[in-house]
Amino acid sequence: MFRHVPNSITAARLVLAGVFFAMLSVYQYEGRGDPWYLNTAFIIYLLALISDFLDGYLARKWKVESAFGRIVDPFVDKILVLGSFAFFAGKNFIIQDTIIDSGQMVQVVRTITGVAPGIVILLLARELLVTSLRGASESQGQSFGAAWSGKVKMVVQSVTILAILVYVNYRHWLRQQGWEEPARYFRDLCIWVTVIVTVVSGLLYIQKAVALYRTGQEHK
Question: Where do the domains of the chain lie, and which CATH numbers do they carry?
């Protein structure tokens, strides 16, 4: 009776991801900047997080874990995170700014989200690396399940995504209240913590893969 409930929730989260990205696609800072788009995106991402916890919890509780869930669940997680950061580094969140360079006022462009393309590359590189290590280990019959660092990484990345959505959507209001600067510092702190946790998580997975490789060599 309950066998397909976790898979249905996982599939629903994939649909939520599509709607989430549609909101980010339509939104454009100081263009199509209706707050409704990012408010909706924020709620959708929260629902996706809740469903991520719920489908795994129910699958374990009812002992109905399936191949579909093991494949699609992490796939949706990666799509949501990587897609979010890719959008944040893209044209819909670019603003013009003026800086002083060599004593002259210079016009530059930057992202209002604080996310640079290099950060997206780093996040993507980590996911590709872990996927490659997992595939190599499991092809040799060694279990390469998710580590605690991967779960921490997902939580930190999700908090950062939500913090960025709030900062961008309410930046003008934060300025009026005199809170824009501390809010920006908090946004940047979240981004740097995300970068650090992502790197550390990748290194821990490399360490795990090396340990599994050495164990496999000893048993040959």
Answer: 5-218 (1.20.120.1760)
